Structure formats: structure tokens, C-alpha cells
């Protein structure tokens, strides 16, 4: 049997070479993971409302020091993820690889895409699939209707769960304590004069969505835009995703959503559930 080595110290009390090497590797691992976390925090700070940023912006949004933010940004430039014009940093197409790693390997998105396209063709409106991620509804699949002005968010887009139809369906799948803890921790803002942005009101909307089997957001995210969402459940009966349609309020009213759109959404969700 090979004897187990115990730590050996030199005369000066320093660790042996084996121990020093192990300590160095461990320190590098910690440093590397910290650096990766900082870089990912900056990447996640980019979005529809932050299409470019300075070093100061990145430091503020990712909660980093300016030197750390600058090193991360320049590293992302060197790797081809960002462009830099001397002041502003902006994402490059290579950034798409990060999201496509999930989208190209997720069976849920692969199964859903043809079903979303079929629902889009029947409704003549954009249809999307989203999952819950840290209090946001994140869109992982979408079939876009061809229009001069598009509706809703794009693939990979995020909406606050508390005031979106998709988010309320997804939050309804959480245990009561976890759902309430999330809502109590998030800063609710009135995005329009119709936004429900108080705890009691949002809880009521989530519970109603769970009871009805669908949720509607009527101009709560943006005036002139409405959405309807239904749950997609896995074989265990748990809500895994939400299927939604977004429309211009002037073209499709709430009653039409309930009468004409809801049956198609439910049918599509059921077909997707049978495939999971």
C-alpha cells in the first residue's frame, strides 16, 4: 500500500514543495473562479436597456471596482466578445455563442420550436416559451410573426416576473414560501399606470393565474401591449415553462385573447407536455 504523505515543513517552517504547489494551485483556482464570476457579471449587465457601457458603467452594474471592471472588459475585447471605441464597450456577435450553448442542447427548446411555429401560424401573432431565472422570465424559444413592428421581447430577453403574464404563470409554480420570499425581495416598479406593483396585488394575480390556468398582462409592461401565458408542465405535474402570445392592444383585445387565443395556447402547451 502506498503510504499517505503528511505535510512536511522545512527548517524555516515553510511548507514542503508538494504542499507549496498544492497551495499555489488552490490559490489560482480561487482567483480564476473569481475572475470568471466578474466577467460573467459584466456580460449579464448587457441588455436591451444597456447596449453599451463605459468602465464606470460596468463597475456600477456588476458591483466591481473600476480596475477589476476594466480588466474584465479588456479581456472580453481580446477574446472577441466586445468591441471598444476608446470609451464605450459594445457586444459583438461572438456573444451569441454563450446563449446558443444552452439553446442548442436543450431538448425543451428543440421540441418546442415547431410547435411554436404552428401556433404562430394559426394565431398570426408571435408565440414564445420562457423559463424562470432569478425572478425574471427568460425567453428560450420564439416564433416571430412577420410584421413591420415586432411585438414582445426577443430570444434570450428577460421580463420582470411580477408584472408579466409569463412571469406570473412561472411564479405560480413555486412553493408559497419561496414565491413570497422572491416578491418581498424584488423592487416593484410601476412601468405604466396599469402595472400592479404591490405585494398583495401581485400575489392575487399569481393565485388567480394558477386557478384559471392562464395569466394576462394588460398594458402593464408597456402601453399598447398585452400578453397571455399558460403553463407547460413536466411529467411530474410541475410547471417547467410558460407559453405566451404578445399582441398590440389596439388590434387584439382581452376578450379576443380569452376566446380565440387561449384554446390554441392550451392545445400547444398540452402537445409540448406530452413530448417532455
Automatic annotation (TrEMBL):
Entries under PANTHER family matching the protein: HELIX-TURN-HELIX TRANSCRIPTIONAL REGULATOR, ICLR FAMILY, TRANSCRIPTIONAL REGULATOR
Protein name listed in UniProt: 4-hydroxyphenylpyruvate dioxygenase
Residue ranges, annotated region (Disordered): 1-21
Transmembrane segments: none
Gene Ontology MF terms in the entry: dioxygenase activity; DNA binding; DNA-binding transcription factor activity
Organism superkingdom: Bacteria
Native source organism of the sequence: Caballeronia choica
Start and end residues of each IclR-ED domain: 94-276
Example of a GO biological process term: 3,4-dihydroxybenzoate metabolic process
Amino acid at each position: 500500500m502506498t503510504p499517505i504523505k503528511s505535510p512536511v515543513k522545512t527548517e524555516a517552517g515553510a511548507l514542503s514543495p508538494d504542499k507549496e504547489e498544492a497551495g499555489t494551485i488552490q490559490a489560482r483556482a480561487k482567483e480564476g473562479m473569481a475572475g470568471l464570476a466578474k466577467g460573467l457579471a459584466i456580460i449579464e449587465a448587457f441588455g436591451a436597456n444597456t447596449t453599451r457601457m463605459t468602465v464606470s458603467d460596468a463597475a456600477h452594474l456588476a458591483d466591481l471596482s473600476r480596475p477589476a471592471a476594466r480588466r474584465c472588459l479588456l479581456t472580453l475585447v481580446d477574446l472577441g466578445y466586445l468591441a471598444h471605441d476608446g470609451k464605450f464597450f459594445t457586444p459583438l456577435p461572438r456573444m451569441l455563442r454563450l446563449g446558443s450553448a444552452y439553446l442548442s442542447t436543450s431538448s425543451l427548446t428543440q421540441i418546442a420550436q415547431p410547435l411554436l411555429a404552428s401556433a404562430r401560424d394559426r394565431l398570426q401573432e408571435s408565440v414564445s416559451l420562457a423559463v424562470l431565472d432569478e425572478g425574471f422570465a427568460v425567453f428560450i424559444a420564439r416564433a416571430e410573426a412577420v410584421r413591420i413592428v415586432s411585438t414582445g421581447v426577443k430570444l434570450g430577453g428577460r421580463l420582470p416576473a411580477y408584472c408579466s403574464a409569463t412571469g406570473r404563470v412561472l411564479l405560480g409554480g413555486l412553493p408559497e414560501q419561496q414565491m413570497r420570499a422572491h416578491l418581498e425581495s424584488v423592487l416593484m416598479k410601476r412601468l405604466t399606470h396599469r402595472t400592479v406593483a404591490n405585494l398583495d396585488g401581485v400575489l392575487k394575480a399569481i393565485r388567480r393565474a394558477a386557478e384559471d390556468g392562464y395569466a394576462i398582462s394588460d398594458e402593464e409592461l408597456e402601453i399598447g401591449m398585452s400578453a397571455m401565458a399558460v403553463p407547460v408542465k413536466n411529467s411530474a405535474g410541475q410547471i417547467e415553462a410558460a407559453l405566451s402570445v404578445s399582441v398590440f392592444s389596439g388590434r387584439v383585445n382581452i376578450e379576443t385573447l380569452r376566446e380565440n387565443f387561449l384554446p390554441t395556447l392550451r392545445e400547444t402547451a398540452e402537445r409540448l407536455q406530452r413530448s417532455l
